[in-house]
Design a protein that fits this description.
With 276 residues, the chain is of the alpha/beta class. It has one domain (2-260): Nucleotidyltransferase, domain 5. It is 48% helix and 18% strand. It has a six-stranded mixed beta sheet. Helix 1 runs antiparallel to helix 3 (75-90) and helix 5 (117-137) packs across helix 6 (158-169). The chain is globular.
Length: 276
């Protein structure tokens, strides 16, 4: 049994939205969780001894900016702590799938999504992630007997992701759809692997953001991508790709897409989904 943990990242200033999924065997996740918590506990022992704020969890954006519970950390301290987290990935075989979309491109091709582009982004990127899993992982002979379940960080888009997942699961043209056993929402308080998913969603978002600005990749993500134990991809869904998706939609499929994304159709369009 495989399990994938998902989280999103992005920023209003860049208009970028990233959705990532970190995948491993269910039995292996127990060891990953232990290693992760062990690293945090060791750091908290140091912080407590120094009379400093202890960490309730790892939060990628706060750590990167040395904000919140990471306020007052020095850069060398931050680098050493991140190196320990990267060693957790180094010891375990994991796969990441990550897609990023520019919300401005999404609105340009789907102007109906102007008031809720993130809803549509969740649907489109989850669809891409599931297709990648079906093709590259479940389609691999080494995993011919594996099923997969997905867990995502709890947010305002829980219902959006669940309905998009169910739509894919019921789509008879979607290969290996029966091997996706379910999707659920959890919080980081109850699900430690979501902290790892947060880390990788943020790092993949920063890759695309920095590439768009002409800056080199962050060293932390370079180290992760160099690991032999780590496989997968992180890509940006370009505007041409969005345009191709749109060109393949007919009225009914567009209605379903907008319904899943909680986007109201323009007045006069048929809409039977009783959107809130």
């Amino acid at each position: 049994m495989l399990k994938g943990y998902m989280d999103d990242s992005g920023s209003a200033s860049s208009n970028l939205f990233t959705l990532s999924c970190l995948i491993g065997h269910t039995s292996m996740w127990l060891w990953v969780e232990w290693a992760w918590l062990n690293h945090l506990e060791k750091k908290n022992s140091q912080l407590k001894a120094g009379g400093r704020t202890e960490l309730s969890r790892f939060h990628a954006a706060d750590c990167s900016s040395r904000f919140g519970e990471f306020k007052g950390w020095t850069v060398p301290e931050q680098t050493e702590f991140m190196a320990g987290l990267i060693r957790v990935f180094q010891r375990h075989s994991l796969v990441i799938i990550s897609y990023t979309v520019d919300l401005k491109d999404l609105i340009a091709e789907f102007p109906e999504a102007k008031n809720n582009p993130r809803g549509l982004a969740h649907v489109l990127l989850l669809t891409h992630i599931m297709k990648y899993i079906a093709d590259k992982i479940l389609g691999d002979p080494r995993y011919a007997d594996e099923d997969i379940s997905l867990v995502h960080d709890r947010s305002n888009y829980d219902a959006v992701l669940r309905e998009a997942f169910d739509h894919m699961r019921n789509d008879q043209t979607f290969a290996r759809r029966e091997r996706f056993t379910g999707i659920s929402a959890k919080g980081w308080e109850d699900c430690v692997p979501l902290q790892l998913a947060d880390f990788l969603a943020y790092e993949n978002f920063k890759i695309i953001e920095r590439e768009s600005a002409g800056h080199p990749r962050r060293k932390s993500m370079e180290l992760i991508l160099e690991l032999d134990s780590f496989g997968g991809r992180g890509a940006k869904l370009q505007r041409e790709g969005i345009r191709q998706i749109k060109s393949k939609l007919h009225d009914e499929s567009k209605e379903i897409l907008f319904g899943n994304a909680r986007i109201r159709l323009p007045q006069g369009k048929k809409d039977n989904r009783n959107l809130p």
